[in-house]
Specification:
The protein is mainly alpha-helical. It has one domain. The protein has three helices and two strands; from the N terminus they run ααββα. A two-stranded antiparallel ribbon has the order 1-2. Strand 1 and strand 2 form a beta hairpin. The longest helix has 30 residues. It is globular.
């Protein structure tokens, strides 16, 4: 992810990305956002949903240990998560897989045409 997008997410969600430059022994966030720019909006919306769970329903305050793309889906890991937060992360992973698959499918249609 481009530096300006990385900085924007860290500025908007300082609690979630408190370990952005942390010790590699403690967190994978020391490596930054290991995904492309196209996932910025989905990551931003995920953060909003995770914070909502914490603020409204007493879930743990989310602290990311890793955000990456793997096998065409976004993987977002937290130090600890409540049930609602785990549901958000599961939904986001599934949604990102569908988005990626649709993008690949559509690009194949364009190439094959």
């Amino acid at each position: 992810m481009r530096e300006e997008l990385d900085l924007a997410l860290c500025a908007r969600w300082p609690t979630i990305f408190a370990d952005r430059h942390g010790d590699p022994v403690e967190t994978g966030m020391c490596w930054g956002f290991q995904c492309g720019d196209e996932w910025f909006q989905l990551i931003d919306l995920t953060c909003a949903a995770l914070m909502r769970e914490a603020e409204l329903y007493g879930a743990p305050m989310p602290v990311a240990t890793q955000v990456k793309e793997k096998f065409g889906s976004v993987r977002f890991r937290l130090k600890e998560a409540g049930e609602g937060q785990r549901a958000v992360l599961s939904f986001v992973t599934d949604l990102s897989t569908l988005i990626c698959a649709k993008t690949v499918w559509n690009s194949r249609l364009i190439v094959d045409s």
